Amino acid sequence: KHKKSDLEHFESPSKARQITAVKGSRIKFSFLIRNAYNIKCVIWYKYDIKSKVNRRINPTGRFSVWSYKSKSVYSLQIEDTRPDDAGYYRALILYNNGMSKTDLYYKLTVSDKPTDNLNKLQLRGSDIVFRTRKPAGATVTWYRVAGSNRIRISETGGPKYFILEGTEKLVVADVGPEDIGVYMALVKKGSNVITRVYFKATKLDYHRRPTVVKAKEYYTVKLSFNLPRTAVNKLKGISWYHTRPFVQISQSKGKYPKYQMENQKMTLVINKLDVSDEGYYVAVIEFANYKTEALFLVKVEKLPVKALVPKELKIMWGQGAVFSFRVPKGVVVQKVAWTYYSKKGSASKPIKADKRVTFEKNSPDYSLKMSWCTERDVGFYKAVVTTDANEELPVLFFLKVEGEPPAVKPEVVVSHLGDNVTMGISFKNARKIKSINWMHINPTRKIEPSKRITFTKSKDGMKRTVLIKSIEQVDAGFYEAVITLEDGYRTRARFLIKVKGDEAHVLLQTPAAAFTPTGIPNGKAGTAKTPIKTTNVVGQTIILAGFLGNVPVDKINWYRVIGNKRRQISPGKKYEIIKKGKYVFLAVKEVTKADRGQYVLMVRTKQGKNLVAYYIMGIEGTKPLQTIHHFKSPLAHHLDIFFKSGGKINGVEFSRLNPTTKIKTDNVKYKITGQKLRILQIEWEDEGYYQAVINVNGKKVTKFFQITVNGVIPDTVDFEPINQAEKIQAVAGSKIALNFELMYGKNIKSIVWYKFDPKTKKSTPIRPSGRVAIKTKGTKSSLLMARVRFADAGYYRVLVKYMGRMTDGLFNVIVKAEPKIVNPCETHLGGTVVFSVHEPSSTIITKINWFRIVDDVPRPIKEGDQFKVTDKNRQLTISGVQDCDIGMYQAVLTTNEGETKDEYFAIRAEDVEPPMRKIKATEYWTVTLSFQYSLVPGDQVKSIRWYHLAEPRRELKTSPGKYKKYSITKDRKSLTITKLKPSLDEGCYIAVVDLGDYTLRALFRLEVKPLPPRKPKVHITKVKWGQNVIFSFESPKNVEIKGITWTYVNGGKTRKVVADGKKIKMKSAHPKYYLTVNWVDKPDAGFYNCEVATADGEKLPVSFKLVVEGEKPKEVPRVIETFMHDTVTMGFEFDHRSPVKKVSWFHMVGKKKVAVPNGKKYVQKAPAENRFKRTMDIVYVNAKDKGLYIAEVELEDGYKTRAIFEIKIVGDKLRNIVLKPYSRTSANNKPAKPVTFPHEPAIFLGTPEDPQKVIARVGGVAQLVFKLEEISPDKLYWYSVDKRGNKRIVAKTENMKKFHITDTKKFNAYRIQDKKAGKNTFYYFLTVSHLQVADGGVYFARLADSAQSIKLYFRLMVQGQWNQGVQYTRANVALWHDVTIGIKDPSTFVKCSLTSVNWYRLYPLEQIATSKKHQFGAKNLELTIRYSNWMDAGYYKAVVTIDGAYDFEVIFLVSVKGEISSDNVNMPTRILALDREAFWIH
């Protein structure tokens, strides 16, 4: 909405501008409208305040009208002012495109005093004009009067003063407070003074209105003003200032300056706006004798603070990471600060450069690089860029490290005692190695160079090796090389040394005391002074050896020296004494520190001499850890360790081993809560062994665990984790597989299978052997066991370690006493069975034992008459087999390696006494009798015969012909019987297998259930007249059909049905048969019987009943209603007959049948995909096309019919067109110069001369509305005035609460309070419904109170009915944006031609013409409203004329949304509004 300062106007005579003129002078009434391009014209009136009569002023004689459109100044000039010119003058401003109008009033006072010639100025910067008249030949000189002094104004070309029009006009430009005072025009002719005219400028409002510039943060704005060319030539200088704070602005330096000045400093450019740039900017313009300013107000809209969204970077463990960003152009970077925090809300810490972390700058790109990353680096990385304007621009990254440290699999090195072993690493990384530490694990100790251990490295430093000479048993175990690079990256390499060799080799490598035949040890080793010393580790097996040489030995004793006593050592679990060749050994198993000390070997020779050797055993280390729980943790993580138990845990005490140190809570490294130990911020130094002493129900249980850094498994481990076991049932001697599904196939570190004892809670690892295998494929790990034994029963556990977690599975294997038979053998009652064991070629069997399994217990077989063991126990023969011999037999084979293998045999009950199998079937079914058998090696089948044990007994053989009654397979193990009959096929069947010395038998009993006798079922088929019917049936597949006969029965008449190819059709496709009857009519109803003759002489009846429903339909035409100029389609489809062969179309013109040809007017179609459908289109229907149409149809089967259609034209197609309105918007900004003048409701609308116009349609509703502000009359009367001038009251109220209405169906009156506007602000409504033409005319509202009454007039114009249905649509547009409302061209979707399109603005109805505000396009189908604001909101109407005869109307409601959308701008009718003062003036 415009500001009042934009327009000098006075809306009523009471607010008229006071103008005083001197008699005989020239006066001009002028007003300025800034950039008002939409003014149509300005009409000037002389207004009589008493009679309220306007008298138009014609520009003749002393009156002239001026219009300076370029300066938007409009004036009325009066020459030679007279006293009768005094009074009120009215300027009526009319606008283009039917917009509103505005009134401006001036009050002229004529005086005889020159000092009364006053001018009131409102704006600083505007111009004041003084004019006078001079006779011919006279001159005018202008002076500035200051007291008694007169200063001559000689400057005629500005920039302050301009003397124009032959010195009769003085223009004072850019008026300010310094221009207040008196001016005089001295009129002289020669030396004679004719007159002196005085002018006075007073009460100047010299506060300049600033030019407001709105922009967003970071935008660039230009503040600019223009000077006339004459003023530029006299320009002295321009200075710019910012008033907050008040500082002078100068041209900035650098590549991206903040301030720039252009156009001789008349333009100031401010780059990269900030909130601090808000405020007033003043341009001080200096001339030689004058100074002025240009004022601007800059408002900066701060951009919303966007949430800082981190950019995520995913890398794999150990890879490098680069965070980079680019600084926008124009930003001068002072510094970049990088910080890191692990999660949102946590404290951040600055990042410093080191060997691993580097910062790079390649303007405008900045980056942070890390050469390698681990899980400790996961988190947020923030870069804060500080600019030269002290701005801080943040950039956020998030680093996600996937994967885990690579699993370090040890490289296995197998060596023999005394060999040299080399372990080496080769590094391919370009980074340099800082250090390598070699460790021997369990116990962990650092390897230092010695005589046996040497280190080497390559020239480039990438290869490092360690050499261990003369390997010993104590050197076996795990070795680890911890590699640290110069950038801090740490990795590992592991080795496993296995010391192998046969027993003799191991023993010979042991230091031994060597004896000579004289009994003195050879050399110094082994004597009392120089005993043989051994250094050993707890848990190992220590061997002490003595070399006997050729000494004849009688007795050997080993002693242990405790104090001064010798105790003889006896062989047992702890000690083992071995004599092998010329050596004698003492093996001490699982040594502890208690085993250290002196040992003595005493050998007594056959000559009676005692030979003695001495040994000293040293033990190092601690007690070995029996059960170790292994925990892995990444660096910088917390690790929680706790235990669970079935009993009550009273307390837990944690300690670290090697050396043993008790762990206490310090909240820095360790924190113990109850029974849980938390190790904070895991580091490399936390690796090692720990123990936990748990007090469970008063008993102490010790648990050991090991922590490895850089691995990832679950943070918690149960005390004794046992899952519910999966039961696996196996049969002895069979194969089983225990399958475990893997969760993460690509991240598996290890898979271990255990045999688990639930009582002792011990798990024994399972090692693959010839009978046991472990396989892992895909997502499944399996434990395979062949030839399952009873000892294999029990629990099995699998433990799978992944990169980051651990899973396990538990299985319970149950072995049955009846295993799957490896060597089954069949026999008969009283026969002989031979079980044989075949020796494998890969092993040597040294012993075979035979057992019979009774009640799951193997019992030895004793030889006798029935059981005989021959062929070196390789065969077991059982003769005279009886029922008691049925069962399982086992052969246990012992190999030369001490292993045992089992083989199982069985005598089955079905072999000794074959059972009889019962088979039940139904008549006409087909059954198959089959059996299987196995033979003893050496047996041979001579024949197999099938018999039916009926009276008489008969042998069965394969039947001849296509459909066989009996069929026997080639192996004669199966007999198939078809088309069963109870009397013929019931009974027992036997298969006899002849093996020479004995026979095998298979018995079957067949029971055939007869079908109940029944009559043939009659299948009833109902069809409508004229349709086709198909009778079909299916015969049994194994029945041979000889012939089929169809008969028709109706009443007592029977006739044979014969196919003619048209009416009757028959089809045989064994086993299905069909009879088709086409074009069914009433005589076709009845029974259709089929007699099927089989090859067996049977006759199978099938019966159908045909019922014909309905009568022959009457030929009633199908009525099709259509519009004029539309396209109509006639069509038919026969989905139950044969395809259409031919179609002929005819049009009935009167009684004449006219053939319709196929062409552009009549389009006949035959779809290829539908052979039963035909259509015909009549294009662009006219009056000649109505009437009957006949389609004569001939089908391919000879049937003829026809379809009849009737075309009726019910209206005009064009009258039912539905137009397609649309709208679109495009972004725009508020124009620098308004393109339209704001509307202002005129208060004097509503007078008899200018009533408020309301346009409505017949049958519609009209609203007569007016608004009163801060006033409420006592009474209100609504009147209607007819054409003759007769008045009648249609509604009235005496108290403003209840209205009395004469015709409630026609009228309704009420008022609504505007609560937002004020207490006494109301809208008053009169609604006229069901409008007729007679309802049009004048209505007025008479408002009365205690003082007087006024009348508000309305003119209701009823403009007939709408030509067509009115369409309505909405268009929403943002403030200052452009909106386009339009209609799609109807000729593109309807066959018509577009005649014209006219656009109107509704309420009142005003046609819209082309202007800068309104633009048309696309054949006037589009209307574009530029720079939409509040006054553009409302209703628009488009009248579309088609084919020069059809009018269609579309109503658009344009809604403007923006900062001023709260104004009531969307009212459908302009409101007649009166405030309190206007009410009384009215």
Model description:
There is one protein chain. With 1482 residues, the chain is mainly beta. It is 2% helix and 51% strand. Strand 80 and strand 81 form a beta hairpin. Mean pLDDT is 79; it is low at 1-9, 117-124, 501-510, 517-523, 711-723, 819-826, 1236-1244 and 1460-1470.
Topology:
Blueprint: E1 17-22, E2 27-32, E3 39-48, E4 53-56, E5 63-68, E6 73-78, E7 87-95, E8 102-111, E9 118-120, E10 128-131, E11 139-146, E12 149-152, E13 161-164, E14 169-172, E15 181-189, E16 192-202, E17 211-216, E18 221-224, H1 229-233, E19 235-243, E20 246-249, E21 259-262, E22 267-270, E23 279-287, E24 291-301, E25 311-316, E26 321-326, E27 333-341, E28 349-350, E29 357-362, E30 365-370, E31 379-387, E32 392-402, E33 411-416, E34 421-426, E35 433-440, E36 445-446, E37 453-457, E38 463-468, E39 477-485, E40 490-500, H2 503-508, E41 512-514, E42 532-537, E43 542-547, E44 553-562, E45 565-568, E46 575-580, E47 583-588, E48 597-605, E49 610-620, E50 628-633, E51 639-642, E52 649-656, E53 661-662, E54 670-673, E55 676-679, E56 688-696, E57 699-709, E58 726-731, E59 736-741, E60 748-757, E61 762-765, E62 772-777, E63 780-785, E64 794-802, E65 806-816, E66 823-825, E67 833-836, E68 845-854, E69 857-860, E70 867-870, E71 875-878, E72 887-895, E73 900-907, H3 909-912, E74 916-922, E75 927-930, E76 943-948, E77 954-956, ...
Parallel strand pairs: 1-8, 9-16, 17-24, 25-32, 33-40, 41-43, 42-49, 50-57, 58-65, 66-73, 74-81, 82-89, 90-97, 99-107, 100-116, 108-115
Antiparallel strand pairs: 2-6, 3-4, 3-7, 5-6, 7-8, 10-14, 11-12, 11-15, 13-14, 15-16, 18-22, 19-20, 19-23, 21-22, 23-24, 26-30, 27-28, 27-31, 29-30, 31-32, 34-38, 35-36, 35-39, 37-38, 39-40, 43-47, 44-45, 44-48, 46-47, 48-49, 51-55, 52-53, 52-56, 54-55, 56-57, 59-63, 60-61, 60-64, 62-63, 64-65, ...
